[in-house]
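Re: calcium ion structure - here you go.
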Amino acid sequence: SVKMILDLDTGVDDALALAWAVCDPRTDLIGVIASYGNTLVETAAQNTLDLLHLLGADNVPVFLGESHSSTTQSFDVMPISKAIHGDNGVGNIDITHSPRQVETMSGIDFLIKMAHQYKDELVYVPTGPLTNLSKALTIDPEIAHLIGNTTLMGGALTVPGNVTPFTEANIHQDPEAADHVFREQERLTMVGLDVTLRTLLTKKHTQKWRDLGTKAGIIYADLMDYYIEAYDQLGIDHRGAALHDPLAVAVAIDPSYVLTIPLNMRVTYDQESGDYGRTIGDRERLLEDTTTQVAVGVKTERFVRDFMDFMIAVLND
Ligand code: BDR
Ligand code: CA
């Protein structure tokens, strides 16, 4: 099985990605890096520790990533993030605190160390801003060639964004870092809104988790229902809520869930033109070998079926 590192801004759909990675036997989750984004970095780390405890996965270490973007000195959670994920990132649901703490090593040092240790075997899955990977690349550019595969949730190529008409939330948090990653990191897969908006979950699905009657089943149903209601009330989608982050984990393990096109990408960050945080093909690198696969199609039915199977398995014990 592959060695996986998740980089989460936990976050309701990040919590789902975590559950899938914990229970899929095809992958060995060796650590989670927490990021700012849907919440403050400390809250994301605490949520991750608490969810791992709930899922019976206290063996997975949690590391602190950056607390703000590469171009700012501080970070405030966007109101839209609070509306979708709750003030605490996990649907305002109280989850029993884990007895564990975050590791003393920084998330960035951990990523660099694991890249050298596992090389090709390492799969890195960021489902928040790309600040941590960008910083790690600045410290040690070698990791661009070392990490076996990086599958990120972020961006939008063929559909509009969810923060501005061009910009997806994770990229919006730190467009400069995202541009750096798209230019430097090899073996990159972009799982953006192009595909994630086609994977919707409804309360019919979460009722099945609730019906398990387990603590984990009820908590996961509660936090997902908060997110489904937010999608409905904010007018994002009345048909269900998008499985953004778990789709990235699925694709990292089995790329056949999506159809991809090879295309070198870049991210715009011109504040003045308003063209800030758009993911688009890099004209300067159109003739170069492609380092990025962009997901543009998804086998929704198969993915949602597998997602439900894994969730029921992990929430059942
Ligand atoms: C992405 O932004 C975050 O709010 C979600 O967790 C997901 O990673 C969707 O645009
Ligand atoms: Ca996320």
